[in-house]
Structures are given as C-alpha cells and as structure tokens.
Write a structure and sequence with these properties.
The protein has 192 residues and is an alpha+beta fold. The chain contains three helices and eleven strands; from the N terminus they run H-E-E-E-E-E-E-H-E-E-H-E-E-E.
Amino acid sequence: MAGSRKALTVGALGVGAMALIGAGASATFTDDIHAGQSIEAGDLNVSVRGPAGSSSSPDGKTVTLPPVGPVGSTFTTGAQRVFAMNSGNIGAHAVRLSAADSGGTRSLRAEIYVKIVKWSGANGTGTDIVVFNDTLTNLEATPISITGPVVRPGDWDQFDVTFYAGSDGAPSLSNVSQGAVVVPTITVDYEG
C-alpha cells in the first residue's frame, strides 16, 4: 500500500508537471517598439522693397514709395513694382490684401483708384493677374482674399501698384479734391 501511494504521488506529480509544461506552452512573449520625431516650427519672415526712390523701414516690413504730385485731375503713378522677399526658412504665400490711408479728404480717397497686379508664380514667373482695380475706399472697406504662389525661402513675390484717376474707365478727380494730399498704405498678409 505504501508503494501504491508512492506511485500515486509520483503519478500525481508527473501529471502536475505536465500541466505546468502545458501552461508554459500557452504563454506569450511581449515586446514594444516606439517611434519619435522632433518637430521644429519654422520662421516666417517676409520683407518688402520698392522701386528706385523708395525707402524701407528698418525692420523691412514697410516700403514708402516715392511721392507723386502735384497731379492734375487726370493722373497715373504708373506701375510701381513692389517685391515681397521671403527671408524666412519656410514657404510663404499671400492670402489677404487690404488698404488704409492717412490725410486727404473723403472725396479724394473715394476718387483715387488703385490697380494691383501680381504674378501667378514666384520670382515674377507665370502670368500677371489683376487682383484689384477699384477705388482706394473700396479696398479699405472690404479687404480681399488673394491666392499667391508658395514663395520658397530666398524667393520673392511681386506686385505692380498703380494709383490713378481719369483713365482706365475711372472718372477724373473733382474740384473738391484740389489741394488735398492722401497717403495710401497697401497691406499684403502672408501665411506659411
């Protein structure tokens, strides 16, 4: 009887050992992988310069075009080329065009027309597109969305700005505008 108990105990241990081996056979191994990435925000830095006779602010964000006048009731400044240079390290594109002014009478601001032409490609490539051709006061009252090319770092966007009255379908200045001076400011907003 002692021998059968021993055999039963050894048999039970053997079955238990087999159960443990089976438990190990169903175990799963685990491992992990990870992906990391450094993301650096770039710098958007667009500066402006104008034609000969223009002056730029120290930060390069404003250009003052040469003064015009005195002018008659019919005049044009001619196309004045303005360059927006991308000095940042990310691409930039024009998204909004607006205007403001200082000085002048309400009638002079309402009678001066502004025509803004830009190019469809960076660096003056592509076709020229008239993006605005109406009164200064209309551009002041209603800024417009514009679509510009992506200007890569080191490249430029260009615009031709013309102020006029009495041509291109615009009426001449009225007598009320005589002797008035207006200083219009055209703003182009960029995103990058």
